[in-house]
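Supplementary Methods, section 5.1.

A reviewer requested that the exact input to the structure prediction be made available. We therefore reproduce it here, unchanged from the version used in the analyses.
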Amino acid sequence: MDRREEFPGWHGTTIVGVRKDGKVVVAGDGQVSLGQTVIKGTARKVRRIAPGGKPVLCGFAGSTADAFTLLERLEKKLEAAPGQLQRAAVELAKDWRTDKYLRNLEAMLIVSDGRDLFVVTGAGDVLEPEHDVAAIGSGGNYALAAARALYDQDLDAEAIARKAMAIAADICVYTNGNLTVETLDA
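The structure derived from this sequence is encoded token-by-token as follows.
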């Protein structure tokens, strides 16, 4: 039996990143669920890291331990290439895809240095969103659709992210309204 069939799996993350008017906001909810049960409602899945003194926002969806492993690897890549988020993200994605241990990690990341905004996946993808909005996790598609619909309104990046997360929380049972919100200027 596949281990995914034996274990119902951890669910419950929505992360959204919005870049608008010289600011980037990454927001994430706090829910962690195991099967049908909410295990924790106040998890912090958005972090600010500053390797080499250059701040980077990171939001993660998926297995928490796997995500922390990836965040540590990203920090090391940024220490080796300070201020070069795209290069660090590409190097992380390469390692993630080719390393025997890393390729089994189940997580996704949204990362931003205030200028660039990327989604990094275990399939080796480093994706820059087409419409200055990115979202991942169980409620990611709801948050993405909401943020894109709100983007042309007279709202700043943080207001868009907060409203998109509220909409996702109303729709996705694996998303709650306990938000962690981090902001960076370009």
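Residues 1-8 have pLDDT under 50 and may be disordered. These observations are discussed further in the main text.
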